[in-house]
Amino acid sequence: MAPNIRTLVTTVLLAAAPLAGAQQKGMLELDVIGGRAAALPIAVVPFGGDCGETDVGGVVRADLGRSGQFRALDVSQIVERPTRGSEVAYPAWRMLKQDFLLVGRCVAEGGGYRTEYELFDVAKQERLLGFALTAPAGSMRDVAHQISDAVYEKILGVPGAFWTRIAYVTSSGLGRGARYALMVADADGWNPRTVVNSTEPLMSPSWSPDGRRLAYVSFEGGNSAVWIQDIASGSREKLTSFRGINGAPSFSPDGGRLALTLSKGGNPDVYVMDLGSKQLTQVTNHFGIDTEPSWSPDGSRLYFTSDRGGRPQVYQVAASGGSATRVSFEGSYNASPSVSFDGKKIATAQGAGNVYRIALLDNSLGSPRWSMLSPGSLDESPSFAPNGAMVLYAAREGRRGVLYAVSADGRVRQRLVLAEGDVREPAWSPYRKR
Amino acid sequence: MNAQTPRIARFLVLAVLASAVAVGCSKKVKETPPTDTAPVDSGATTTPIADTPRPGAYSPADLDTDACLRNRVVYFDLDQDALKPEFQAAMACHAKYLRDRPSARLRLEGNADERGSREYNLGLGERRANAVSSALQASGGSGSQLTVVSYGEERPVCNESGESCWSQNRRVELVYSAK
Questions:
Q1: CA torsion angle for A373, A376, A381, A385 (degrees, to 10)?
Q2: How far apart are CA B179 and CA B16, in angstroms?
Q3: I want to staple A378 with a disulfide (CB 3.0 to 4.6 A). Which of A123, A226, A396, B171 is the partner?
Q4: Entry pTM
Q5: What are the chain B neighbours of A175 within 8 Å (beta carbons)?
Q6: For residues A400 and A379, what is the distance between their CA atoms, to the nearest angstrom?
Q7: Are the beta carbons of A189 and A204 closer than 8 angstroms?
Q8: Shared domain check, B41 and B73
Q9: Do B116 and A349 touch (CB under 8 A)?
Q10: How far is residue A405's CA from residue B48's CA, in Å, rounded to a whole number?
Q11: Helix B118-138 vs helix B88-100: crossing angle, to nearest 10
């Protein structure tokens, strides 16, 4: 190793459950919507050495570009290919108008690889990061996503959310011949694996705050029931199977409670279950449809969808119950609220006529401000990244559902082509534990 | 077996008893199988009602042949859970079937079209199934014979985007789990 490099070694820890079935590769299409004048130019040089089958630099480049915060230099424009700091000639990168430069290299080590990377500020000619990670050969995409997270946080001061996962539901077939699956994949759509297969509908995955379990709705017993399943071991528990609807589970931020929708009282209302005692508290009590509870970050309040005013709109209520107040006042239809980690932004599926788009209600500047994140026309199920910088949602293209990731400012949108069939109900995981 | 009892008389006694039981059942929460309360004689209890239907009573075969009973899907307007008048006749004959056959069990499966939130549509599907349940009970069907399940938009019969497809998905299916 070059002695002038102060290298810190971290080991990639993976909750590596064996992948079920053949690994399908995801495909990505980047769709840049608006101008990216504010996006920071960064050159991610293809990593040198032996990184196995993974294009580590390519994964990092795609991650940073997808975020909307960076404008990653196209690989075809990268002529000089330094792999370490001593090889970097700053003038060349200044000529290419790059603010930042990432270089790296891999070395086979044991059964895996040791990956070193360095981040530079081109104008200041200063090294910002220099780290090494060791990981098994099958985890090189995880290594790349962790590098993306480190770069993102160093430059923007906000943790990256690239090394995270997404859960979603797929279906194929129609009517009684339909098949359903609950899937988990990397945040960029790669490495999908099946968590549950069923001939009956599966719905509404919700991550536990530790990222180890999923709550979801399954109709396998002939009616909806709420289950909690450990992702790695597959062991699971049926939480509720009351008469009527058992739906819309949502873990509280501390993981100790689960908000959900039950219609055992005659119509759908929001309840909270204490997961230790299994005791239920009824939170809303209205003859309208109350559903889709989503927690405020401090666990004190619930945002939910209700048609008590006629059409569905977003309301909030204390998690212990009480009177609800309306939150959304724009658009004739607002549903499926997803709350950002700081509680300042709420994404909804907003409808007007036959057009449903993902809308963002931003309260961070004091007075509420709406913006549109998606073009429609049948967009639904928004889910915030744990750092609040991106939103996943489901859209319809022809006869099938597809997933999109959009930057929270709406400027960069990317489609995740995950699998055959109809894909919907994305849920972005919390940060993974290293 | 009492061979002396004229066949026709035995039939009439059975029919009267069975219809009394059926009417009683429609008002009571707990239904009683007719064979338990039709003790014409101890041997006769082995003859199920279905084999000797009284005139005008439905039998399971009618579910496949009767024009009215074959209507087992109720369609709804957008965002509506009100039963349209054209389905009243179907409600009446299915209610009669339930009265005629107290052991029959009917599952009402509510569905919605793909637009809007999936969980909200689960609520909408339940409202529609409840509307059918109320209509059947208003026509004399027993609530104890009915189960309501909502599938929301999770079980479409058609997956193209457009009103001609959406209108087929906004439905309640009547599924006999016991005929």
A1: -30
A2: 21
A3: A396
A4: 0.85
A5: 155-157
A6: 12
A7: no
A8: no
A9: yes
A10: 62
A11: 70
Which residue bears the tokens 């008002």? B27
Q: What domain count does chain B have?
A: 2
Residue of higher predicted confidence among B102 and A173: B102
Q: Which of B149, B150, B157 sits opposite A174 (nearest CB)?
A: B157
Instruction: Tell me which residue in B126, B150, B160 faces A399 most closely, judged by beta carbons.
Output: B160
What the block records as the tokens of A305 is 């969808």
Q: Which amino acid is at A26?
A: G
Q: Which of A204, A422, A424 sits opposite B119 (nearest CB)?
A: A204
ipTM of the complex: 0.90
Residue in A with minimal Cα distance to B169: A175
pLDDT one-digit tens code per residue, A64-109 = 998 989 999 999 999 899 999 999 999 999 999 999 999 999 999 9
Q: Which of A246-255, A409-418, B7-16 has the lowest mean pLDDT?
A: B7-16
Domain of A112 in residue numbering reads as 8-15+36-156
Q: For residue A223, what is the nearest residue in chain B, using CA coordinates? A: B149
Identify the H or E element spanning B175: strand B171-178
Distance (Å, whole) CA A206 – CA A293: 11
* A262 in the same domain as A129: no
pLDDT at A20 over 50: no
**CATH code of residue A306:** 2.120.10.30
In the chain, the amino acid numbered A420 is: E
- DSSP three-state, residue B154: coil
Same domain for B41 and B93, yes or no, is: no
Minimal CA separation from B82 to chain A, in Å:
15
Residue where a domain terminates, one of A103, A126, A156? A156
Please give the backbone phi and psi of residue A341, each rounded to the nearest 5 degrees, phi first.
-60, -30
* Cα–Cα separations (whole angstroms), residue A194 to A20, A201, A312: 7, 15, 33
What is the C-alpha to C-alpha distance for residues A243 and A225, in angstroms, rounded to an integer?
Answer: 9
Quick count: other Cβ atoms within 10 Å of Cβ A322? Answer: 11
Question: In sequence order, what DSSP letters do the residues of B64-128 get, joined into one string?
Answer: HH-TTTT--EEE--TT--PPPGGGHHHHHHHHHHHHH-TT-EEEEEEE--SSS-HHHHHHHHHHH
Subunit contact B158:A174, Cβ cutoff 8 A? yes
Hey, are the CB atoms on A174 and B126 less than 8 Å from each other? Answer: no
Q: Residue A331: list chain B partners with CB under 8 A.
A: none
Are residues A143 and A212 located together in one domain of the fold? no
What does the mean pLDDT of chain A come to? 90
pLDDT of amino acid B86:
96
Number of domain units in chain A = 2
The C-alpha of A5 sits at a distance from chain B's nearest C-alpha, in angstroms, of 53
How would residue A62 be classed by pLDDT, with cut points 50, 70 and 90? very high
